[in-house]
Amino acid sequence: MKLPEAFISRTKALLGDEWADFEQALQGKSPVSIRLNPDKTAHFCRDGCRTDSLEKVPWASGAYYLPERPVFTLDPLFHAGCYYVQEASSMYLEQVVKKWISSPSKVLDLCAAPGGKSTQLSAVLPEKSLLVANEVIRSRAGILSENLIKWGNPHTIVTNSDPSVFGKITGFFDLILADVPCSGEGMFRKDPGSIEEWSLANVRLCAERQRRIISDCWPALKPDGLLIYSTCTYNREENEENLDWICRELGAKIVEEPRRFLPHKSKGEGFFIAGLRKNFSSCSSRNATKTSSGISPGTKAIAQMRSAFLSTIEKAWEKDEFAFFSENNTLSAIPSIHQKEYLFLKSKLKTVSAGITLGELKGKDWIPAHALAMSSRLPQSVFPEWELDKNTALTYLRKEALTNLPDELPPGYVLVTYQKQPLGFIKNVGNRGNNLYPQEWRIRMSR
Length: 447
Fold this sequence. Notes:
Elements: H1 5-15, H2 19-26, E1 32-36, E2 44-46, E3 49-50, E4 55-56, E5 63-66, H3 76-79, E6 83-85, H4 93-100, E7 106-109, H5 116-124, E8 130-134, H6 138-151, E9 156-159, H7 163-166, E10 173-179, H8 193-197, H9 200-217, E11 221-231, H10 240-250, E12 252-261, E13 271-278, H11 299-305, H12 308-316, E14 322-327, E15 330-335, H13 339-348, E16 351-354, E17 356-362, E18 365-368, H14 370-374, E19 385-387, H15 390-397, E20 412-418, E21 421-428, E22 433-435
Helix pairs in contact: 4-5, 9-10
């Protein structure tokens, strides 16, 4: 690994006597780590690999190092949302959140794609918190939505809006996570290609962009709210100097002292994280934005779409646990406690997905959505189930037609599972199972 001379001189000045150990660590192998989904599985991470034989990531719940990197694409449990492949250092987010957030909160993950920190927030935030996961780039917002749908927590909204749009939602969020785009110095070992993209000019450009992002979203944070600022880079311009700027220009106060992860000191890649409190004195005198009705629930369309098994789903949920909304013949369920917030945010932001998409009305046929299969709130025994072996599961995930269905399987919609974990739906039409797996999510890798 050949490092840029400017990076070497700057990082030597930062690390001093630790430079030799740091440089040696960069020549080593990048560790592989995963984090289990507490709502889906707690005893395995992948086929043939039990967690009791794995080294734990010490600062994150349900997180483990793997001895080698498997082909995750060919593991059905990965597609079922049973675990997320996340860089270990970045999982320290859990420690900061648990220290400062103890009651249900409205949380924004501002630069969220592909979804590692969003899925972690979903797992560690207090119950009934609302998570808004945003990504400004449309294609990456789709990937973010896919990963959060697989994770299955209904208390989540995925948006595709610029940070400046959030600045118009005054005083809405209790916590904003800004894992800002950076020069990526901390990824040199994991992604050697990032070395070629590094330059002093790019460091300065990133630092300026980071300040603009924080300035744009700052009004959306409540007075006394918490901003968690993080990067995957080492330099002071994008880290400590930006923290100083936030305190000086926006009136924040550092409450969680900065922590820099270095590959020669911890088993992970480069990462920087700190927490800042928004002071009352720095806030506008305007009140926090009030929620509004936004869109109509579409009760007529909902009535048309309430088939026998949808009624069964509703009965399995707690009374008034969800509010139902329809748009373009698609029915969704939003946790009732977030109904007003959802309507308000939908009127202000570009929404990609929210809550649980239940299904779509096509003609007179109500087709269950893949998000319903992935949801942690899918009641048991609503649909007949077919447990697949690994080869058949991969056939399903390639969106190929399934044949040789069990004779006892009833016609209609069937939930297919692997190791008792839902993978999605098929429609049993007798001689085959029509595959309802999302076309854009299908596996393209050969076995």
